[in-house]
Amino acid sequence: MSVDVGTSPSARFAKDLAVVVIGLALLLLLAFPFLWVVIISFRPDSEIFTRTFRLITTITTDNYAKLLSGSPFPTYLRNSFFVCITATFFAVVIALVAAYGFSRYRRFRLRQVLLVLVICTQLFPFVILITPLYAMFFSLGLVNNFLSLIVSYIAINLPFAIYLLLGYLDTIPVELDEAARIDGASTLQVIFRVILPVAWPGVVTVAVYAFVAAWDEFLFALTLMTSDENKTVPVGLASFFGEYTTQWNLVMTASVITTLPTLILFMLLQKKLVSDLTAGSVKQ
Questions:
Q1: Given 8, 170, 199, 236, which is the most exposed site by the fewest CB atoms within 10 A?
Q2: How far does the chain reach from its first CA to its final CA, in angstroms?
Q3: Are 183 and 205 contacting, i.e. CB atoms less than 8 angstroms apart?
Q4: Which of 89, 91, 74, 90 is nearest to 232 (CA)?
Q5: Quick check: 180 and 189 in contact, CB under 8 A?
């Protein structure tokens, strides 16, 4: 039996301390831009362009009051929440059904061709869809209608969502489907009552991805929403940048509010996602 005496406790402590210090320094470096935006959002107009660097300064909530009560930004928030939640829901449902078909019906002759087509849609930039989608929605009278934006976001997020859920459903035993069918369950009942609870971590991952992608999307919302009352948050945020002047206090405040939904979403779902991914890994 050999004893490792090559490293003294003081040396190990110094090494661990160095790792912690470097980690905290990197964390501060990554978080500082967002922290600075938060600090600026609580500063009055007179102190935004001060030449003296000060973290602690006059704190005011006038910027938030002005943004939420004296601007159309709350309307932009409602529009974004409605569009993103609706698009995320339908994208997840359609992706789950499609991924189940690709995973379980492997004898279907066109399965491989359709799966390649789904993957190939990710090879092209989505900006090339702007013109044909606008022409299609214009002919249908859906320009400046939330339905056009919802359909666009579903189409954008669906291929990756199907591909991601397909890999997750392939790990679920087919015996679960067979047991449910013996009990008289239909295909949709198998998907939503048997497969969905087991595939919950993958579904949550897809939902988070679809929501964040829709929440941050700018080009489609700018093109398809032509009226001010139908703008989403990214387009509304861009309207604070004027040709001659920029309302930096409102820009910083709106940036903080815009970041909060995705930040809260990750904080709430992180523990649930990790616990579900490790569930069943150890036999009871």
A1: 8
A2: 35
A3: no
A4: 74
A5: yes
d(CA 158, CA 150): 12
Number of other CB atoms surrounding residue 250 within 10 Å: 21
Eight-class DSSP state of 72 = S
How many residues make up the chain in this entry? Answer: 284
Tokens representing 204 are 């949550």
Walk me through the domains of the chain, giving residue ranges and CATH numbers: 72-239 (1.10.3720.10)
Mean pLDDT of 41-66: 73
Joined tokens for residue 23: 């980690």
DSSP-derived secondary structure letter, 252: H
> Which whole-number Å values give the CA distances from 152 to 158, 182, 211, in the listed order?
10, 39, 13
Question: Cα–Cα distance between 250 and 242 in angstroms, integer?
Answer: 12
Tokens 């198998």 locate to: 190
* Residue 115 burial (CB count, 10 A): 15
The CA-atom distances, in angstroms, between 55 and each of 36, 42, 159, 252 are 8, 11, 45, 15
Helix (H) or strand (E) holding 113: helix 111-120
Q: How far apart are CA 111 and CA 129, in angstroms?
A: 25
Residue 20 in this model has a pLDDT that exceeds 80: yes
CB 161 within 8 A of CB 206: yes
Range with the poorest average pLDDT among 75-84, 153-162, 163-172: 163-172
The two three-digit tokens of residue 176, written as one number = 């679960």
Which is nearest to 86 in space by CA: 171, 157, 10, 1? Answer: 157
pLDDT tens figures, 102-116: 888 877 888 888 888
